[in-house]
Write a structure and sequence with these properties.
515 residues, alpha/beta, Archaeosine Trna-guanine Transglycosylase, Chain: A, domain 4, Rossmann fold, 3 domains, seven-stranded parallel beta sheet, four-stranded antiparallel beta sheet, 16 helices, globular
């Protein structure tokens, strides 16, 4: 054997992929052992970048995970696959090839698993028990935040109410100074999703008193949606209470009266079918779709096979994936509805005269993602392998078990907020460059794509998915391990984002082309 032959230096994602991803820097002249043969690196192949494993003639599709993400301009075996030798293009969707997927069969072993959750009056299961302070508009946001922080940061509060995970506010920039149609409708839907969320045991809504979404408007909306019967919801108006100081005192009195009631909830054994797992990725690199995202997908599969639900969002990061996902949709109608989500983004971009390509940020490209489609192919790995049972609008409540796709941007805080409003009670979040985003009421498990990132951010990353790059590692074994962690976190174990109170809340503003 050639002494300079490099073994296990390239990751091949699909059995017949003509390219691989470099696990380490490959200097020009490196000789690689690949599929029983050898490939000579014709140039420097940086770690995380793609190398051609055979000649890919001009006009032929360049494929990863078994699916095209670009067209070759003529690539020699051993060459770096980059924007200089590829053309951004994907094949048309062949709707004639659609076939309904088989019904997902529950796994008896998984379906018998339990975690310690909060059983709510509406039948849903909470993984946390928060008291939530909801500002009705941007004008009430700072006062609501001051009220929540004053109580939440008190040591006496945590001693008196050990089963209340915190008093949290969700300040935002919506509710007035805008059109009275879609922007207000979206705000009301998101606030309803948070107020009625199973991770919330009680809620106080605070308004200024003159905004479009004052307490009367929100209360009327919740009553129409039959959303006021499952928990205590109280109301304080800043103007009617006599100003900011008086309203803070009034709010604190209300919360002091309600906290004993919220504290009466106990964790109890509940089925894993009560889990609704949200999936998210942010600051991706070339290894996101190889380590962390497939690991999240493995857990999504386990939850679905236990009778639970999972949600895939960030539609801007699914562009070009319909050929990959087509046969997973429960019906052709759902597949066309998904295509409609993509079409909405592309139409909006045309109307505004902008491009969707900035979704691929410089750090993504530096990390090895040469175009939006290859990024998307890796991103949808978070959805696992089961059938897609539903397609939802932004912040729509998750209606059924199995995997759903939710409309939403790639902007992390906005898409996480949409997931939480939809009712997910735990979020798995992959990152390749490192991001600390959390959520106000839902625990977020941060999954690093590489050893290096896990070591660089040791008190922000919960899981090191870089172990999948180690010899002998398998998605199945590490998927089992992450599934056990999900059960522990759902049962109350805190994540790093929770410890540092990373309580992001940001609504996707109507008319904003968030990428």
């Amino acid at each position: 054997m050639n002494q300079g032959l490099l073994q296990d230096a390239v990751i091949i994602c699909g059995q017949d992929d003509p390219i691989g991803v470099a696990k380490i820097d490959l200097p020009s002249g490196s000789l690689l052992a690949v599929r029983g043969g050898q490939v000579l690196a014709l140039e420097m192949i940086p770690r995380g970048q793609r190398i051609a494993l055979k000649d890919i003639p001009a006009g032929v599709w360049v494929v990863q995970y078994g699916y095209p993400f670009a067209r070759s301009l003529g690539i020699k075996a051993g060459a770096l696959v980059s924007n200089r030798n590829t053309e951004n293009a994907v094949p048309d969707v062949d709707w004639a090839r659609y076939q309904a997927p088989p019904v997902t069969v529950l796994d008896p072993g998984l379906a018998s698993r339990t975690f310690q959750g909060f059983r709510r009056l509406d039948g849903r299961i909470g993984t946390r028990n928060y008291y939530l302070v909801v500002p009705a508009s941007m004008c009430a946001s700072e006062t609501a935040l001051q009220v929540a922080r004053r109580i939440d940061e008190s040591r006496l509060f945590h001693w008196r109410y050990p089963r209340v995970d915190g008093v949290v506010a969700i300040p935002h920039s919506e509710g007035c100074g805008c059109d009275s149609g879609l922007p207000i409708d979206r705000l009301l839907k998101v606030l309803k999703g948070y107020i009625t969320h199973p991770n919330v045991g009680g809620c106080l809504v605070m308004d200024m008193g003159c905004e479009q979404t004052d307490c009367d408007r929100i209360q009327s909306f919740l009553k129409q949606a039959s959303a006021l019967s499952s928990k205590p919801v109280d109301w304080v108006s800043i103007q009617k209470s006599g100003g900011s100081v008086a309203s803070r005192k009034a709010a604190q009195r209300v919360i002091a009266r309600r906290l004993p009631e919220v504290n009466r909830f106990f964790r109890e054994p509940v089925s894993v079918a009560g889990l609704v797992v949200g999936t998210e990725c942010g600051a991706s690199d070339a290894f996101s779709g190889i380590t962390a995202n497939p690991l999240i997908g493995a857990v999504a599969d386990r939850v679905v096979q236990a009778g639970g639900a999972a949600v895939l969002t960030e539609v801007t990061e699914m562009i070009g994936t319909l050929p990959m996902l087509l046969r997973r949709f429960r019906s052709a109608e759902l597949a066309r509805k998904f295509q409609g989500l993509i079409d909405w983004y592309e139409d909006m971009a045309r109307r505004l005269g902008v491009s969707l390509t900035p979704n691929l940020v410089p750090k993504n490209i530096e990390g090895g993602l040469i175009n939006n489609v290859v990024k998307s192919l890796g991103a949808v790995m978070k959805g696992g392998t089961t059938a897609i049972e539903d397609v939802l609008d932004y912040a729509d409540r998750v209606k059924r078990p199995g995997l759903s796709i939710m409309q939403g941007p790639g902007n992390d805080p906005e898409s996480v907020t949409g997931l939480a409003a939809g009712g997910v009670n735990i979020i798995l979040f992959s990152t390749g460059q490192g991001t600390t985003t959390g959520d106000a009421i839902v625990p977020v498990i941060k999954i690093a794509t590489t050893h290096e990132l896990f070591r660089r951010l040791p008190k922000d990353m919960d899981v090191d998915a870089g172990r999948l790059l180690d010899p002998g590692a398998s998605v199945n074994a590490l998927g089992d391990e992450l599934f056990e962690r999900v059960i522990r976190v759902a049962s109350g174990q805190r994540t790093w984002s929770e410890r540092w109170k990373q309580r992001q809340f940001q609504i996707w503003t109507v008319g904003k082309l968030s990428l």
